[in-house]
Amino acid sequence: MDIAALRQLGNTLNSVAEAITALDCRSGFSGVCSGLPSAEAAGVASGAGERVAMAFAAVADRVRHLAAASMNGAATYEAAEAAFTAQLQAIGGR
pTM score, two decimals? Predict the structure, then answer.
C-alpha cells in the first residue's frame, strides 16, 4: 500500500470538496426571477437555486467523507506497519 498516495488522495478530495462548496449555485437563478417576475418560471426558479445549493452541499459532504476515509486508511496502514515492524524487531527480525 502506498500510504503517501492515500494521503494525497485525501488531500485532493478535501480540495475538491472545498471547490464544490465555493460554487455559487444560487445567483444564476436570481436572474430568472428578476427577468420574469410575473411568470410561473420565476416562482419555480426562486426555490431552485436553494435546492441546487443544497444538492451541491450534499455532494461536497460526501466527498469530505471519502477524504476522511482515505486519511483514516493511511493512518491505519501506517499503524499496522509500525506494529508489525515492532513485532519483527522483538523476535529478532529486521
Answer: 0.78
